[in-house]
Amino acid sequence: MSDFFNRSSLEYRLALYVGLGMMLFSLLVGIGSYRYFSAIEVENALALERQLVQTVLSQTSVGVFAKNEPIALDVMQGLLINSIILGVKIDGHDGFLMEQKKASPLDFTTAISHPLPSPVNAEETIGFLHVVIDLLAVQNSAANKALFYAGMMVGQILVATAILMTLVRYLLGRPVAILAQQMVEIQPGEGVRLAIDTHHTHDEIGLLSRSANALLDATDCAIDLERQLRQQLGKAMTLISDSIHYASLIQRSILPDEGMIQTILPNHFIVWQPRDVVGGDIYWCSPWGEGNLIILGDCTGHGVPGAFMTLIANGALGQAMLTTTPGELAPLISTLHGTIQDVLMHDHDLIDMDDGLELGACYLSSDNKTVRFVGANISMFYQDHNRQATELRGNRTAIGYRTLPKDLRLTEHILEGVPGQRFFLTTDGMLDQIGGMKRQGFGKRRFLDLLENHKSTPIQKVGEELYQSLVTYQGKESRRDDVTIIGFTL
Prior knowledge:
Strands 5-16-13-10-11 form a five-stranded antiparallel β-sheet. Strands 6-7-8-9-12 form a five-stranded antiparallel β-sheet, sandwiched between helices. A four-stranded antiparallel β-sheet has the order 2-1-4-3, covered by helices on one side. Helix 4 packs parallel to helix 6 (303-323). 50% of the residues lie in helices and 19% in strands. The chain is an alpha+beta fold.
């Protein structure tokens, strides 16, 4: 019952609208009925007066013609017996005049006049019979009867409305409310269905319930299918994730051993942060001839494709080092370039791919008095003690790509090594990272400023400071590429 008085419920609104509509209809019917029955009652009263007059009209004519007062008096008294007649007046053309009335004074100007025909010649009028009726009593009687009939009709309509509203409640409102409550309580995927009342098996409520159950069946099937797909996707993601993490172990295994790096470069740092679990950045540090070789490479792509390229580049470098005279840095990189082109079969038109890498390579003499540098789209930054950092740019070309000539020649820069001098190599993952208020790249200028700000910071801690500055600058922006930074001190 409480749902019925809930103003937001369909049942309440339906009953309210039906009730208001029927009340308005009954009001209009009542007003119309009152007017109709009032007019009918007044007409009936006037008809009764005419009928009474017709019964005495001939007798009145005889009385006037014969000037017989007893006859005239008998006619008037007979008419006055009727409650709606207040007065009667007989007026003959020869001066015969008589009148009778129930109350004085009485105005005969409102009387209804009936001509009196001559008893010997019906076409001749010998006088008039004037009758005054109690119009107010007639109207009151008519109003009372009209109100009675109108009240009966309004009462019948209201009873019919109450019956209709009850039927609407129990045949429509209540079943819909029960159906809605069941649908609210049902959770898709639990296998629960709407209960169909036997009284509504073949009506619209039953049809709606069956349609809802069919929809729930389809929803449960979709949920089961989604659950199966999620399980399959979860297994696939687990398999892929496990494979990528294992690939990460493989990729890390080709990186130089930290102990060997520490032997070659006692004062150094290395930041290696793939954008994904595996990445396309790689670095090498190993003895070569009488000196030591340090290379930073940024292969095409990131993630799994980039990681595959690092494996290719690692194998190609090992082969190039075997066929190049130790210490000849530029020929080593040129040989590496050609080897990668051969491994990727860039001379085959059927192979539709164009991959390679950018790199920066340093070769330190055994006494650290000579520093050789070859760059392929990667610069080297060096910093003397208490001096501003300087960029040493390499060639504006990468290596290994199909569009490059086979006999690519790169410029080799030679610097005099100074004790305490610092050297830095970084991939474009740091320099191109979007961030800051203006969403611009990190840039070389900001990188050089950081080196200047940390020129007194121990080299082992500079890498952490550089990477943390990048993270802060990046903010909520997504990481664009792998980030690798190498720094060391002679």
